[in-house]
Specification:
Layout: E1 5-8, H1 16-23, E2 29-33, H2 58-65, E3 71-76, H3 83-92, E4 96-99, H4 106-115, E5 119-120, E6 153-156, H5 165-174, E7 179-181, E8 194-198, E9 201-206, E10 209-212, E11 218-221, H6 231-234, E12 237-240, E13 246-251, E14 254-258
Parallel strand pairs: 1-2, 2-3, 3-4, 4-5, 5-6, 6-7
Antiparallel strand pairs: 8-9, 9-10, 10-11, 12-13, 13-14
This protein binds zinc ion.
Protein name: N-acetylglucosamine-6-phosphate deacetylase
Organism: Sinocyclocheilus grahami (Dianchi golden-line fish)
Cofactor: a divalent metal cation
Length: 259
């Protein structure tokens, strides 16, 4: 890992500023997943913290987040009413808007991109599945309504559990320039099998999977993939050879390691 973009989920918002103080020295920026996301596609995010956009633009956002300095990315669901103003406001501040935890159809996703969204959060997970009549957010990978010269990036959890390798290949072959690999390793990584507490939730760990206790959706797989970062945002990248052995590491455009 060259540098981290740390994702915070809703269970942390009540101690958000505390986390900013702890994390800022070691991460490149904060990724806020939510709370403006879809109830149906909330995944591990507790329902009681979800919000909808009021027509207040930035005042509405600040009321929720309190603090946007050092926030590098916000994930939101573009089908929520008044999302366009929020997308424009966040993009205008240099914060990447990512689409995810969403029921959006393709035209809603395309509109969000036209307003400034540039990213898709964990493609395929927590969104409508690809359908040939309306491919949903996934359709952005081949959309002809993305403004010329713009690249829509998409994060994928390439652990063979969140996404089938064939689906990863479909995405990569359709839109190789946009692929960003993401770990999705949660705080539970490294804990033994059994029941544990993550934030305010109980989770069950079985083998390489973590589940929200009592539910069957995968919270996280403990990635064995290794390398992962939001390189598009901070110009951090690594060079791998054909056997996926690390050859070079760059942070903020500088080579910091070489084999
Ligand atoms: Zn998520």
């Amino acid at each position: 890992t060259s540098s981290f973009l740390c994702s915070l989920v809703l269970i942390f918002y009540f101690i958000f500023e505390f986390f900013l103080m702890i994390l800022l020295p070691v991460v490149s920026g904060i990724h806020l997943e939510g709370p403006f996301i879809s109830e149906e596609k909330r995944g591990a995010h507790p329902s009681k913290f979800l919000r909808t956009f009021k027509a207040g633009g930035v005042a509405n956002l600040m009321e929720t987040y309190g603090y946007l300095d050092n926030v590098a990315m916000v994930t939101l669901a573009p089908e929520l009413a008044n999302s366009a103003a929020a997308i424009r406001e966040l993009s205008g501040r240099g914060i990447a808007v990512s689409l995810g935890h969403s029921m959006a159809d393709l035209s809603q996703a395309e509109e969000a991109v036209q307003h400034g969204a540039t990213f898709i959060t964990h493609l395929f997970n927590a969104m409508l599945p690809f359908h040939h009549r309306d491919p949903g957010i996934v359709g952005l990978l081949t959309s002809d309504r993305v403004p010329p010269g713009r690249t829509v990036y998409y994060g994928m959890i390439a652990d063979g559990i969140h996404t089938h390798p064939a689906a990863l290949r479909i995405a990569h072959r359709a839109h190789p320039a946009g692929l960003v690999l993401v770990t999705d390793a949660v705080m539970a990584m490294g804990l033994p099998p059994g029941r544990h507490t993550l934030g305010q939730q109980q989770i069950d760990i079985q083998g390489l999977h973590a589940y929200v206790a009592g539910l069957r959706h995968v919270l996280s797989a403990f990635s064995v993939f290794g390398e992962i970062h939001y390189g598009c945002c901070f110009v951090d990248f690594i060079v791998l050879d054909d056997t996926l052995t690390l050859r070079e590491t760059y942070i903020a455009g500088q080579q910091v390691w070489r084999k």
